[in-house]
Amino acid sequence: MSSRRPLAWTLCALAGMEVLVAAVGAAGQRVSLGDLVDSYMLTNTAIGVGFAGCGGILAVQRPANRVGWLLLGAGLAPLTTAAITPVLLFGIVHGWPEWTLRLLASVFYAAWPWGICMFLPLALQVFPTGRPVSPRWRWLFRATVAVGACFTAAMATEPSPLVVAGRGVHSYLELPFYDALGPLWFAANLAPLFALLGAIAALVVRYRRGDEQLRRQLLWLVWALVVAVGLNLPRWLVGGGPILLLLAIPLVPVAVTIAILRHQLLDIRLVLSRTVLYLTLSLAVIGAYAGLLTLFDVLLRGAGAPLLATLLIALAFNPVRVWSQRRVDRLLYGSRSDPVLAVSQVGARLAADDLTGVLDGIRDALRLPFAALRRDGRELAAAGQPPVSLHTVPLTFHGARVGELLVGVRSGDRRLAAADHAVLDLLAGPLATALHASALAEEVQASRERIVAAREEERRRLHRDLHDGLGPALTGAGFKADAAHNLVTGAPEQATALLAELRRDIREAIDDVRRLVYGLRPPTLDELGLAGALRRHGATLPLTVTVDAPDALPALPAAVEVAVYRIGTEALTNVARHANAGAARVELAVDSAVRLSVLDDGSPDGPWVPGVGLNSIRERATELGGTCVAGPTPTGGRVVAVLPLAVPS
Description:
Layout: H1 4-28, H2 33-38, H3 41-61, H4 66-93, H5 98-126, H6 138-156, E1 162-164, E2 167-169, H7 182-209, H8 212-238, H9 251-261, H10 268-300, H11 305-333, H12 339-350, H13 355-366, E3 370-375, E4 378-384, E5 390-397, E6 400-408, H14 418-487, H15 492-520, H16 523-539, E7 544-548, H17 558-578, E8 583-590, E9 593-600, H18 612-623, E10 627-633, E11 636-644
Parallel strand pairs: 7-8
Antiparallel strand pairs: 1-2, 3-4, 3-6, 5-6, 8-9, 9-11, 10-11
Helix pairs in contact: 1-3, 1-4, 3-4, 3-9, 4-5, 5-6, 5-7, 6-7, 8-9, 8-10, 10-11, 12-13, 12-14, 14-15, 14-18, 16-17, 17-18
């Protein structure tokens, strides 16, 4: 690649020499400014400098990218024509030989078409990567070279003489039978249009397939083309107008260079939106004024027609400008100017409980390149490609931070606009609620999984106890009973010993059955009721336990009653083990739910570290659709569980 840079510098030097020849020659021949403009020498030079200068920068900075070299060619072509003009004028004035003048005229005619009809369309086809859209588009590259050659042939072989200083100079390339090939030259004159349309088609396909960065690069070119074409379209359509409007064409290579080297220089979408808006409005105002002037001139016979047309245009301009600006901004920036609409668009996706869809909605509503939701440093969902610059929006629910929304700053912007902040601030509330609900759902799901796991573990334990303990004990008791029956007549002493062993085994089996039954439902609940069972358990602990309950508790669902008992006994056991308390009070209240409170006089505001006991309490409450709150207080520890009487299925 470095070997190409000397060639780039050489071509740039050649362009500089041509500019010098054109400038010195025009000054030496004392060509007036009007003649410079009318002969297109000034515009050719400016266009050539723009294309060659930008092409040279790209060829040096990005030698592997064909765009720079093609722009260099597009600049050298008009510069060659511009440099030939004063040389030809000098030759005419000083009587150079006819063959020299005709040679210069041939170069004049053959040089400039290559730039506008071949090199420029080719540069647009491979912009910005330097390669065609795909291998299948290479035919367009070759076709553009062919149509460029056809157009150059049409321009160079035309028999009309080149008029300089009042003298016509013919080219060596003239064809005596030029007029006989009229259809061919007509098609050749249309060739540049087809080459340009092919380049535009390639740009459209590249834009649709490209990522966010590529699209922004293409928008730079779109902006330049809009300005250049918008300024010159009237003169191209009607065949007249100021020639100096062609000076807008160098904006194309400037935009191409910025797009390749510094496409993040500024927000091109804002520039493009304002350019499109004001060019459209300018053309609309000119057209409307001309139409109204003609209409009023006919209706009013010229009396006050210009004044009335001007007044109507002035009254309609600002409303039309505001309406148009809103439409253009909506296209480039989404609904950020209407926060309510943006929130409603995203809210419709929030209802679907799809975080990725919500982020896509935010990107669509604000035309942002990237959006993501994070919680505790973990990315929950993301949409788009993250740019270099990110903006973080904290998401809080009831004063607690539940996560953050990360959005990508648009390429070319250093920060988000105030209108973007307004929309994101409105979205922060619903998003925080959604994240909080998502966290709760994850906790509930995890709790259910733990409950199912505990239930399966309990069933496994029962199966093991029945299979390994009670089952073999009863089987052995059956064998001993058969043996005692066989020995009762022949060996009564052995039968008596076997019966004693049998009675001991049955007693142990009964103890096992009681233990299993107690694990399923404590017998004290049936014997003493819920309050009495809690008092009995409290009497076994090394602290004073007081149970405050109604005299007659209503009949409770079995699952609720067992859960309240297990929660109460576990809480009291934790107090005895960890609270350094001397007394505890149990409070029971029943209305639409059972409320159990266990209070102790342990260390005030002491540290609480949730362990197996507290997790078990919370899981029992959650399993029945209830809640449990546990923690230290200024007077000691507290555990409060609320269980609804309607047990969820």
